[in-house]
User: Which sequence fits this backbone?
């Protein structure tokens, strides 16, 4: 089936399914159903079956999904059955929390380089893998020489666009942006935003 | 116009518009257009006009939007023209980064209470407002006595559901969840998720 016809909103739910399957595996479970997954995720079972049907037949009528098999298939579809090198720019409190986060490696990502312009941070190790912080002047060369395509921006808003431009010019094609600003990037580059204020304001409307 | 007919996806874009308007104000600008906003945000101008039309007439044909007026209107619509008290549970690296973040107060939120179970953290000040960390045993009483309705969860995954239950039982109606797990909450409670792995995996599909 051609990839292009699958809506992005479906792709966006696959990591959530993958995460739920990971918890089921950790619980020692082997078989699940679209009903159980739906109950856990607050998504209808019909939606889950429809989403997965874009990629083939994963469940057998009446017996449900083999959790390990579906987990492996989703990892392959999302291309996280390998480890992606990730560059992190910004070694402040937020960057430190990201570098210290233990949940990336098991999910397909490893932060292999960290950049900041603070002389107090440059040259010192950071995060669970003790990556040495480098000056942002070295960012482009690092991305190019290592063929890195995934970047995380955890800088203040006013620096984020310049960092994004360096990343993109050097070959990054996917950016996770924690800076509270919408980035301007070429069409071939994907950006996902993490802004707690947007998440909070989206809810207060309903209060 | 009845609120219920406005799709949640439209509500979800309003904080992004508000953020962009805030940057325009900081730049000293007074008038903008749906075209300019769209260019900055990567959203079509037609979409922006349609989204805003749910709430009334904000722009004049040919003269664009008064930035300050639209900013104030969106703040009122999203109910962030007031300060919401927020409880934060989890005072680890991530909780510290959240408590240190200076961007909440100007956007309608202030973290007024922080909770953790680590004896090393309890009783000590944390974050830009030097909020004293309290034990999670005191969470429910704090929420109830202060009438808090917004909570942030920055605990490990295995503790998040229990914390969410305490929050909801005590009166919280909106939860920003950083723990990498889908929470089970009653229908009247809103949850927004912040999981960097989900954001990253959603992009690697396309690489």
Assistant:
């Amino acid at each position: 089936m051609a990839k292009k016809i699958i809506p992005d909103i479906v792709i966006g739910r696959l990591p959530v399914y993958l995460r739920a399957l990971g918890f089921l595996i950790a619980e020692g479970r082997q078989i699940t159903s679209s009903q159980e997954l739906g109950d856990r995720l607050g998504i209808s079972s019909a939606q889950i079956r429809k989403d997965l049907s874009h990629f083939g037949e994963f469940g057998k009528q009446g017996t449900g999904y083999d959790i390990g098999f579906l987990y492996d298939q989703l990892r392959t579809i999302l291309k996280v059955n390998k480890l992606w090198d990730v560059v992190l720019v910004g070694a402040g409190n937020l960057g430190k929390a990201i570098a210290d986060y233990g949940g990336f490696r098991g999910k397909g990502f490893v932060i292999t380089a960290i950049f900041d312009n603070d002389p107090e941070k440059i040259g010192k190790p950071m995060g669970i893998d003790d990556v040495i912080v480098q000056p942002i002047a070295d960012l482009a060369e690092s991305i190019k020489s290592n063929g890195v395509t995934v970047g995380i921006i955890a800088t203040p808003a006013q620096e984020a666009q310049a960092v994004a431009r360096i990343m993109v010019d050097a070959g990054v094609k996917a950016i996770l942006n924690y800076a509270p600003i919408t980035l301007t990037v070429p069409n071939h580059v994907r950006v996902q935003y993490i802004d707690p204020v947007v998440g909070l304001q989206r809810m207060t409307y309903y209060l």
Chain B is about 40% helix and 20% strand. Chain B touches chain A through 58 residues (CB under 8 Å).
